[in-house]
Amino acid sequence: SNREKDLLLVPSSSGGVSVIQWPPFLLASKIPIALNMAKDFKGTDKELIKKIERDNYMLYAVIECYESLRDILTDLFTDQHDKDLIKGICKHVESSREEQKLLSNIRMSELPQLSSRLEKLLNLLKSEHEDLESVRTPIINVLQDVMEIITQDVMANKPEILKGFQGETTDNDEERKQKYENIDLNLMANSTWMEKVVRLHLLLTVKESAINVPTNLDARRRMTFFANSLFMKMPTAPEVHEMMSFSVLTPYYKEEVLYSEDELRRKNEDGISTLFYLQKIYPDEWSNFLERIKFVPKDEDSLKEKMDDVRHWVSYRGQTLARTVRGMMYYRKALELQCSLDMKKDWVNAGGSQVSYQEQMAYAAKSVAIADIKFTYVVSCQIYGVQKASKELQEKLRYQNILNLMIKYPSLRVAYIDEKEEMVDGKSEKSYYSVLVKGGDKWDEEIYRIRLPGKPTAIGEGKPENQNHAIIFTRGEALQTIDMNQDNYLEEAFKIRNVLEEFHAKKHGTHKPTILGLREHIFTGSVSSLAWFMSNQETSFVTIGQRVLANPLRVRFHYGHPDVFDRIFHISRGGISKASKVINLSEDIFAGYNSTMRGGKVTHHEYMQVGKGRDVGMNQISLFEAKVASGNGEQTLSRDVYRLGRRFDFYRMLSFYFTTVGFYFSSMLTVLTVYVFLYGRLYLVMSGLERSILEDPRIQSNLKPLENALASQSVFQIGLLLVLPMVMEVGLEKGFRTAIGEFIIMQLELAAVFFTFQLGSKVHYYGQTILHGGAKYRATGRGFVVVHAKFAENYRLYSRSHFVKGLELMILLIVYLVYGKSYRSSNLYLFVTYTMWFLVASWLFAPFLFNPSGFEWEKTVNDWVDWKKWMGNRGGIGIAVESSWESWWEGEQGHLRSMSARGLLLEIILDLRFLIYQYGIVYHLHIAHHSRSILVYALSWLVMLTVLVVLKLVSMGRRRFGTEFQLMFRILKALLFLGFVSVMTVLFVVCGLTIGDVFASILGFMPTGWAFLLVSSYLCCYPLTRGKKRERKGKKKY
User: Fold this and answer.
1) d(Cα 569, Cα 514) in Å, to the nearest integer?
2) Which residues form the domain of 153?
């Protein structure tokens, strides 16, 4: 707030005050305490002064308050006689202080009354008024009261000048009052004088402790980090004209630039708009914003008057291009200010004293010119030209918002790919250009146009190619890569000179760094509980994780963070973005691989931080994890990882493995271990081996120690060790009590469920990429999640990665429980399987737990209706996956169309595990009468085939007779039903079938049917792939 800003502000000049002027929050409540102390004090002057001097801040506050009041009153009066009066009073006070007669010459009991009138006077002076003359009379009246209190009440023994003044006007009281009417209200337009007024008002009025200023947690965090960073080791900053020049490059596609009014007001099914949502999660920032724009809305419609300001306020709290551009342009603002200070310092060192107005203007122009030379910001808006020509409202708005940014920030440059039809040898051909534009008066102005050999994004991934075509427009010796969802802070921008000096720091010896890693702050942590989980996870990685990777492990690379590249080194050695399709999906880390392989060095520095946004909703986070896991799968298959692994020494190779692809490989092995363990247990319980082992008398005596051992080690199965880095980092920065508290709160908010669910995403997409390749970019969308996700959407996202696998593990656990319950203790089963049940519950129910209004009955019913409709719709060409299950299924099999023979064989071998259920369960049915004959298993297959034939007959009958011969179709179904009832009756009465056997058969036959579906889908997709490849080879040969 404005008040908190004033409390934190150090005055720009001393203003004639003889003591150090501390920020007012340090002096808060000192004057009220001193007044209470003095008004009833019964001792001597010496004792009073000694009591005040015990608190240095109180002493400084008293002296500053006295001297500031003297200067304000002296400046305010225009009559020399009034000025002389103030001077005489001050002389009397100072002489009384020297002679130790303050308590006898001044009535301390009247000081609180004087303080209250001064507060009223200062309120009038610091308030904003359109017409100064309208407040002249109230100010004069209060000023006369103040002077009356000083001269009549406070002064016990009046000085000579005061007696003389009163003697001149004693006969006419009205004339005496007119002595204080000549005041200079033009001072209220003087910023320095008003600063003194505001400061004195704060000293008098702040009666409570200001230790919690500012109250906003993010402001406190930024100030705390900046203050702490000043004590960290960093190179000395050179003057601006001697620093390295650098550029910032941001790739942009078609994300939000600035939220529109319609997007802010659009409500979800619960009647919640984005604006309302942000007002509730940032209540203090919203009230401070209204205070800054000096507006009090009566209702939501009244905000239309300030909608442009509101749009910016919301956009600066989202992950928008406007926020990123504003943050990066702080570099230019910081450099201008630092350059101006450098020149003033040089002026003072040269013996100069007062700087004239013309010299100040020349310095300002020179500062702007030097800042433009040292800093360049290029935003690579790939389809800016398409958006400019588009007639679609959404794209047109994005173009207009980008144009407004260029006009607002004249030094901002936008690069884009322009596509034109040109005549070449009499034929019309498409030509592609890399174009750089800047903002003009009203429109953009073209600076450069470079012809390209073809369309870059046709041969490479979108984001890296977007960077590659624009990198030629950057300048300088260093290049900082900034994503579209990042932010910067003015106080951090002041340290960019220190960071760039790291390239030349002597501590690195002859092996200078080529990439400087910087710390990140995740600013989306307060948006939701999921965003907080991701924020804490990311914070531990970008701080303690990056710190250890850089030193001593020496295996830090580039992770899409705000790293600063040695531009000359990388442009001459392959660039900063590898862009080959699929394999370079995670293009950022390949830049680090490339730099390391070419002899570069990557360091990490924590004295500067940059803001970073993360996905805030469940589905957004899952898509992001899927993209990263797929990218790591492609890294595992890449030459870069192979070459680095071969060139590193043994210990550095291990560090490299476990901090890159090894993490995902280990996660996959963890889940595979669960599968192997449960299928092994399934074999033991079905074969009877487990029963024979546990019922052995020699084993039974050792069961209790086994249970105790399982109980002690089961604590670590929850994965508590994985959260240790996060707890350590939060403990180092905020204290270990805070760290433990945050950890407990995270567990209460089901963080363990969330991270276990995300483990499934990592394993599924990493394993799929390893087997079949085909990694692809997944757009997550970076908006605020205030909408309930329908079950059909969750089903599309999590069916294959979580629901199917969760159901498989649940069936395994149920079978293991049911068929071993008669001879196994419940404690043993619990200790062995409770973490696996937790895994199953997380994979099956997390999307509902973290879905807004996920358990509201009305939405559940609507989701069911929507899901049934989606399942029933037929697919086809042009039918979106959101509209039809069939279209979604076709898309899900996309990775199989590039499947190799090795991948096909592995998939079939893995799917054969589903046949184990049927083989084991049929021998435990009561109808089998404990027979171990192979005929029992063969008979189960006969039943399976019969069921499939019956289902096929019903399906064919529905297609052939369902419309024209409905009676025949109904008779067919009736006969099948009667046959089914007759067979089941015979089985129950004659053969000894039980209800338990029916449910057990379902458990046995369901996995077998799923195996058939999977194998048939693989076999159907594989020949198509081979046929297309043969066709392409034939065309090539022809």
Assistant:
1) 7
2) 2-164+180-213
The predicted model scores a pTM of 0.86
Tokens 């005549």 found at? 423
Six-digit token string for 151: 């001269």
Question: Based on the domain organization, do 197 and 310 belong to the same domain?
Answer: no
Q: How far apart are alpha carbons 628 and 613 in whole angstroms?
A: 16
Helix %, strand %, coil % of the chain (to 5): 65, 10, 25
Question: What residue type is assigned to position 696 of the chain?
Answer: D
Q: How many whole angstroms separate alpha carbon 559 and alpha carbon 612?
A: 13
How far apart are the C-alpha atoms of 418 and 182, rounded to whole Å? 68
* Cis ω before 11 (30° cut-off from 0): no
C-alpha span between 494 and 608 (Å, rounded): 9
Do 817 and 940 share a structural domain? Answer: no
**Residue 973 lies inside a defined structural domain of this protein:** yes
- Exposure of 857 by Cβ count < 10 A (0-12 exposed, 13-18 middle, 19+ buried)? exposed
Give yes or no for residue 1035 having a pLDDT over 60: no
Q: What are the distances in angstroms from CA 778 to CA 163, 583, 622, 829?
A: 86, 15, 10, 41
Can you give the length of the chain in residues? 1038
Angle at 763 between CA 596 and CA 461, to 5 degrees: 50
Nearest in space to 280 (alpha carbons), one of 314, 257, 322 = 314
Q: How confident is the model at residue 1030 (pLDDT cuts 50, 70, 90)?
A: very low
Q: Considering its fold, how many domains does the chain have in total?
A: 4
582, 492 Cβ separation under 8 angstroms? no
Evaluate whether residue 333 is within a structural domain: no
Nearest Cα to Cα of residue 738 among 752, 727, 753: 727
Q: Do 144 and 199 fall into the same domain?
A: yes
Chain center to CA of 718: 26
pLDDT digits (tens, 9 = 90+) for 20-65: 889 888 888 899 999 988 888 888 888 888 999 899 999 999 999 9
Q: What are the pLDDT digits (tens) for 952-965?
A: 777 777 777 656 66
Please say which residue of 830, 855, 880 terminates a domain: 855
State residue 785's pLDDT score: 74
Of 611, 339, 341, nearest to 489 by C-alpha is 611
Reply yes or no on whether the pLDDT at 861 is more than 70: yes
Contact 582, 538 (CB under 8 A): no
Query: Domain for residue 196, yes or no?
Result: yes
| Domain membership flag for residue 564 | no
Per-residue pLDDT at 703 exceeds 90: no
271 φ/ψ angles, rounded to the nearest 5 degrees: 80, 20
Would you give the end-to-end CA distance of the chain in angstroms?
76
Task: Indicate if 155 and 274 belong to the same structural domain.
Answer: no
Q: Rounded to whole angstroms, what are the CA distances from 1015 to 810, 908, 1024, 1028?
A: 22, 6, 15, 21
- Could you tell me the CA-to-CA distances from 205 to 122, 216, 585, 628 in Å, in that order? 10, 21, 60, 55
Quick check: helix, strand or coil at residue 586? coil
58 with 120, same domain?
Answer: yes
Task: Tell me the mean pLDDT in the region 363-379.
Answer: 92
Contact 240, 370 (CB under 8 A): yes
